[in-house]
Specification:
CATH class of the largest domain: Mainly Alpha
Shape: globular
Radius of gyration: 22 Å
Largest sheet: none
Number of domains: 2
CATH topology of the largest domain: Tetracycline Repressor, domain 2
Number of strands: 0
Structural class: mainly alpha
CATH architecture of the largest domain: Orthogonal Bundle
């Protein structure tokens, strides 16, 4: 009598976990290759080799090099920005405290991680590939600006802010983040900048202006 064949069914949750882990390996490799070669010269073959997978495996996740870059933006920064937006908006806190939470996220989860390399990539490639800039604006910038405007509107509505300047120009709040990015990319070794103190000082100045007399 022959032994019955045993069929093992894989746990769907575990399969999805494995799939996401493999995707992250591919995205990490893609970031390395894009940084080394630039978007124009990077090839999916290079990404596959760096990730230790077959080129066909990459195509199981993305159909093209641009789609891979877009996936890097979405998972690397877009999703975290969406998560922190919801978290900050749900806080039972003043507008100032919400801004402080957002600044802490910027310092720790963007400037303090490899996510900053994705931003550097966008800055270097956006001029030649405006479609990448458009994706970054949709996935990251628009979400961040909308969150800043929501916080500023709360401050004005509750009387915490005496000016609506930040409602009209939420970009003012994120300006030091760009300074920090550029400075650490090009000038830090010549003239070290204390990013934490700079961000804290900027927030203090911003709050002093926002809580003054109406403009």
């Amino acid at each position: 009598m022959s032994a019955k064949r045993r069929v093992t069914r894989r746990n769907p949750a575990r399969s999805e976990e494995d799939r996401q882990a493999k995707l992250q390996i591919i995205l990490d490799a893609a970031l390395d290759i894009f940084l080394e070669k630039g978007f124009a010269e990077a090839r999916l073959e290079d990404v596959a080799a760096r990730a230790g997978v077959a080129k066909g495996t990459v195509y199981l996740y993305v159909p093209s090099k641009q789609a891979l870059f877009e996936a890097l933006i979405h998972s690397g920064i877009g999703e975290p920005i969406g998560a922190i937006r919801q978290k900050v908006l749900n806080l039972d806190a003043s507008a100032e405290d919400k801004l402080r939470a957002l600044f802490a996220f910027l310092r720790k989860e963007v400037l303090g991680t490899r996510r900053v390399d994705i931003v550097r990539l966008i800055l270097s490639e956006a001029g030649r590939f405006p479609e990448l800039a458009e994706v970054y604006h949709r996935e990251v910038i628009s979400k961040g600006v909308r969150l800043l405007r929501n916080i500023a509107e709360q401050g004005v509505a509750t009387g915490e802010f005496g000016s609506d300047a930040l409602v009209r120009f939420p970009q003012l709040a994120i300006a030091p983040g760009l300074v920090a990015l550029l400075w650490t990319s090009f000038f830090q070794k010549f003239d070290p900048l204390d990013i934490d103190t700079m961000l804290e000082t900027h927030l203090a100045l911003l709050m002093r202006a926002m809580k003054g007399s109406p403009s």
